[in-house]
């Protein structure tokens, strides 16, 4: 039985098997040169459809080590997915997931200036929240101390509560930078200060549920805002116990 041949780019008649081999070889050479061909290009070169060209690209591309990381097929226009860039080495397989056209899919890094801007805005917002909470907490705590009859200590006892919360917050920040847990003492100091401030605000508030809710809002908002800021700050990863033992 005779095999229907096609004409190669060089003008030679090729069988179906030879056409497939020639198309795959042409794609490999183009990928090695840094300009991989698409399915449409191969289809036009060998007088076939773009679907036929994509099949040859899929057969010619380097195998992916992990089957779970095999990328999805390209759309019919052979456009790389959004969020990826082309990065093909001299052999067409510089590492990492590749699409059907041999382009390596690399996630675009997030600009550093955007992260820094977000952290600065968050830090400024937390400072404003802390100032409002400190002002409200100081007034309420001073009023509670005066209600207890200790007028001499009414001006400095609130400072001890807010100061302990400040020291615990800064200690937590340093621990995070060093990649270490905050520790039970730091959390105890922070929670004790927060509970004392919350209790003083509620005790000095008007005897209505709305007044107590408004008075309790400041310390709760401060603790939540500070924790959200801590989640944005960079920190060193915790050391591996095995590596520490070897060193």
The total of helices stands at: 8
| Overall tally of structural domains | 2
List the uncertain runs. Answer: 1-8, 83-95
The whole-angstrom Rg is: 33 Å
What percentage of residues falls in helices of 4 or more residues?
55-70%
Mean pLDDT: 75
Give the N-to-C terminal Cα separation. 72 Å
The overall strand count is: 2
SSE order in H/E notation? EEHHHHHHHH
Strand content: under 5%
Q: What sort of overall outline do the alpha carbons produce when their principal axes are compared?
A: rod-shaped
Order of strands side by side in the largest beta sheet?
1-2
**SS-derived structural category:** mainly alpha
Q: Regarding quaternary structure, how should these chains be classified? A: single chain
Sheet of most strands? 2 strands, antiparallel
Topology:
Layout: E1 6-7, E2 13-14, H1 16-32, H2 39-45, H3 50-60, H4 112-147, H5 157-177, H6 184-204, H7 209-232, H8 241-246
Antiparallel strand pairs: 1-2
Helix pairs in contact: 1-3, 2-3, 4-5, 4-6, 4-7, 5-6, 6-7
């Amino acid at each position: 039985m005779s095999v229907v041949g096609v004409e190669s780019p060089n003008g030679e008649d090729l069988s179906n098997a030879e056409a497939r081999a020639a198309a795959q070889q042409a794609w490999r050479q183009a990928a090695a040169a840094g300009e991989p061909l698409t399915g449409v290009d191969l289809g036009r070169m060998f007088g076939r459809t773009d679907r036929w060209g994509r099949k040859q690209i899929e057969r010619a591309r380097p195998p992916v080590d992990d089957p779970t990381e095999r990328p999805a097929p390209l759309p019919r226009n052979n456009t790389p997915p959004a969020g990826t860039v082309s990065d093909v080495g001299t052999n067409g397989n510089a590492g990492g997931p590749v699409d059907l056209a041999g382009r390596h899919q690399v996630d675009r890094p997030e600009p550093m200036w955007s992260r820094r801007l977000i952290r600065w805005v968050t830090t400024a917002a937390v400072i404003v929240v802390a100032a409002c909470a400190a002002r409200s907490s100081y007034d309420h705590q001073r009023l509670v101390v005066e209600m207890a009859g200790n007028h001499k200590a009414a001006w400095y006892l609130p400072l001890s509560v807010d100061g302990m919360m400040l020291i615990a917050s800064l200690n937590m920040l340093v621990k995070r930078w060093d990649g270490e847990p905050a520790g039970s003492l730091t959390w105890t100091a922070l929670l004790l200060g927060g509970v004392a401030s919350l209790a003083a605000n509620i005790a000095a508030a008007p005897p209505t549920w709305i007044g107590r809710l408004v008075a309790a809002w400041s310390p709760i908002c401060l603790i939540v805002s500070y924790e959200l800021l801590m989640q944005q700050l960079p920190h060193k990863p915790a050391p591996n116990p095995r590596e520490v033992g070897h060193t």
